């Protein structure tokens, strides 16, 4: 099982960052690699079980299902249903934790998945840098940090 973990600190209160990222259909509003997104079957974007169907800037299509969402603990967990990446059993969690000193936010994004061992290093690096760190960098730009 491959594992990816990326963490960072954003110079804004966790509640404000959570307001920006909690919408399971809102990736195009904050992640630069996402072109557009829709929730299938017109379900609410915070309903556990809903499926987001989105396109990357390069045209690739990905479908993900929301497995868990907590406003109290500020996390969402999801799985990839369809992707051009050669992976299976992908489960990821995006979690925010308040940093009370300076009213900042600790963010962490992690994933586990199965893949061919020959592809693991490239997939871990690509997901870690392009998806997770790329999202954090965009949030830092948005919140001025």
Outline:
It is built from 3 helices and 7 strands; from the N terminus they run E-H-H-E-E-E-E-E-E-H. It has 145 residues and is of the alpha+beta class.
What does this entry look like structurally?
25% of the residues lie in helices and 44% in strands. The chain is of the alpha+beta class. Strand 5 and strand 6 form a beta hairpin. The termini are far apart.
SSE layout:
Layout: E1 2-10, H1 14-21, H2 27-30, E2 34-39, E3 51-56, E4 61-70, E5 75-82, E6 87-99, E7 104-115, H3 120-143
Antiparallel strand pairs: 1-7, 2-3, 3-4, 4-5, 5-6, 6-7
Descriptors:
44% strand, single chain, 7-stranded antiparallel β-sheet, Alpha-D-Glucose-1,6-Bisphosphate, Chain A, domain 4, 7 strands
Percentage of residues in strands: 35-45%
**What is the topology, as strand order, of the major beta sheet?**
1-7-6-5-4-3-2
**Biggest sheet architecture:** 7 strands, antiparallel
CATH architecture: 2-Layer Sandwich
First and last CA, distance: 34 Å
User: Helix segment count?
Assistant: 3
Summed over residues and divided by their number, the pLDDT gives a mean of 96
Q: What overall form do the CA principal axes indicate?
A: globular
Give the number of domains: 1
**Strand element count:** 7
CATH superfamily: START domain
Assign the structural class, choosing from mainly alpha, mainly beta, alpha/beta, alpha+beta, or little secondary structure. alpha+beta
CATH topology (fold) name? Alpha-D-Glucose-1,6-Bisphosphate, Chain A, domain 4
Range of helix content: 10-25%
- CATH class identity: Alpha Beta
Element pattern in H and E:
EHHEEEEEEH
- Residue ranges: pLDDT <50 for 5 or more in a row? none
Give the radius of gyration: 15 Å
């Amino acid at each position: 099982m491959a594992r990816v973990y990326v963490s960072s600190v954003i110079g804004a209160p966790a509640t404000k960052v959570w307001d920006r990222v909690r919408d399971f259909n809102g990736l195009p509003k904050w992640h630069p690699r996402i072109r557009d997104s829709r929730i299938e079957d017109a379900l609410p974007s915070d309903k556990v079980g809903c499926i987001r169907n989105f396109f990357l800037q390069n045209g690739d299509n990905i479908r993900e299902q929301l497995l868990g969402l907590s406003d109290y603990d500020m996390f969402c967990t999801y799985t990839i249903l369809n992707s051009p990446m050669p992976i299976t059993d992908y489960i990821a969690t995006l979690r925010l934790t308040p940093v009370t000193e300076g009213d900042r936010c600790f963010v962490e994004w992690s994933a586990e998945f199965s893949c061919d061992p020959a592809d693991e290093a490239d997939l871990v690096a690509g997901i870690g840098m392009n998806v997770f760190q790329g999202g954090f960098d965009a949030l830092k730009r948005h919140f001025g940090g």
